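USER: Study each token:
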Amino acid sequence: MARIAAIKLALTSALLAAAVTAVPQAQSRGSVDEALFGKTATVRVTELPRQGRETYELIRQGGPFPFDKDGSVFGNRERLLPIEKRGYYREYTVKTPGSRDRGARRIVCGGPKRMPHACYYTADHYASFRQIVE
């Protein structure tokens, strides 16, 4: 019995140590897991690059969008955004001057298409997100 208790204590200590060291790593990645950190990094609409403000306005108007993939489902595979059912999030391209393709900048919105519940900006192709606030 004492040996089992010692093993449980050692496992609990190891898990706690792993959790404590994981939190700063996740925060430095720009994670917006509200359940773990309690807050989301934000960016004001006025702080977005001009192309981001234009894309945000197109989202609120319902388009038209310049790229075929705009409005497609965003899977949130990395789970950096709050967890929702598949189909909740949609992605939109933010043009990058000088880029020959869609570039790395996107806005991802969750909820109804024209009046989303929340939108997030990423400048690094989904490695980090900041919630857009008015």
In short: The mean pLDDT is 80.
